[in-house]
Amino acid sequence: MSVGALGGIVQALLVVAGSPVLAGVMRQVRARLEGRAGAGIGQPWRDLRKLLRKEPITPRGTSGVFAVAPLVLVATALVVAVVAPFVTTASAMRPAADLFAVVALLALGTVALALAGLDTGTAFGGMGASREMTIIALVEPTLLVAIFALSVRVGSTNLADIITSTLDDPGRVISPASLLAAVALIVVIVAETGRLPVDNPATHLELTMVHEAMTLEYAGPDLALVELASAMRLSVFLGLLANLFLPWGIATGAAPLALATGVVALIVKVTVLGMVLAAGEVFVAKIRLFRVPELLAGSFLLSLLAVAASFFLA
Amino acid sequence: MSDDVYVQLVDLAGGALLLTAVLILWRRELAVIIRVFAVQGVALGALVAVLAAREQTAELWVSAAGIVLLRAGALPALLRRAMRHAARRETRPMVNVAASLLAAAALTLLAYAVSRPLVALAPSPATQAIPVGVTVVLIGFFVLVTRRRALSQIVGFLLLDNGITAVGFLTTASVGLVVELGMSLDVLLAVLVLGILTARMRETFGGTDLDELRELRDS
């Protein structure tokens, strides 16, 4: 087995096994801050196990799009988990860890789920899909431009190269380009993963749903896949955010000790980010849907300013 | 101060100027806008202070202190006083917020395009931040022409002035204390007059929506 492949496998296992735990930790933090006991950090895994044992049911009249969407969603998240630099920068498929490839893969998952929402033909599915498209139309360019701002000085859009060069020159983290890009990325990650204040992941009110509205018709193992994929996407985004701006601890090779350090560093960084995000959610209310494009346009402007700053203040 | 630290501090202050200008465009609550404006005054003062530490001139230090006093202290206090009775939110800007943010993105690019020749004259870390100042000028002008409330228009005017001051210090490193003092007094006076004008408008018409003052009526 080549050295790079080992890192990829470790990353994939870590993301698949860890992301439901991350979701559990975030729910637990919220529960405690709201004065509830909480279900414990293992609850998402218990839910997944229960759902996986149920018989698969698809609504009458749905086509292959509906059946394939959960698989596409999980597959794209899994590919990103393997290629992008989370634990080690020495990925087996380093050329695939390109900024554009990674963002396109993540967007592909979103589009698959939106198509599935439309495929069910229900009012809520279509509504959720249309809302998700409104959001992704501004999220995707912002993601691209914000990470592009970081890649300008490196001269490469490869994520591994960007992270390596930040490791070599830590002063870059507090440059204005990097700070503006960080703010823009945080906003779009919150929007893309369907967290407050853009979407409420714990809502039971269909009219206000965005992400959940598209998954209303899923049940059993399919629902388990969708839930797992959303958790994986959240950890993938948080992992990218952590490594792009605070890359310390990431392994640059595939030596076992360095990999172990990388795993611990990633777990610590992502857990802290997730807890901060969950704690922040307690204090904000969901904003009106019509104000969401405002928020996203603002973050797009910030990312553009980041690119401008990295070009002209350099 | 070493070169690296100097460049980073200039860049950071420039970034803060840009960010605050964008936030002023973004937010609707006048109280928040005024607070952000005060932060921008501090950022501008910090920029001048960094230049002062670089050039080692007492004149620049005095300018920096004056800028912080005026733009982070006096002007926000005046605005807050004018706001006490006025509407608290910019309710209906001419261009909605999402569109104005995208317009600001275009303005940024425009600012970089037009200030390229200026930067090319004498490339240095300070002059490379000129586009930031020009962007703040353009965003200030945009706020001035697209807002309806008198107070937000004043903030737009002050934003414009902040940008001009930033460009002035970045290009020449010292405009001369007398010139800077005169300009600051001018701005202070303008805000005072506008504040009084706003109060009179409110007394007479009950609101500061300038669109309702288009027509002359005799009654």
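qc> Chain B has eight helices and no strands.
qc> done
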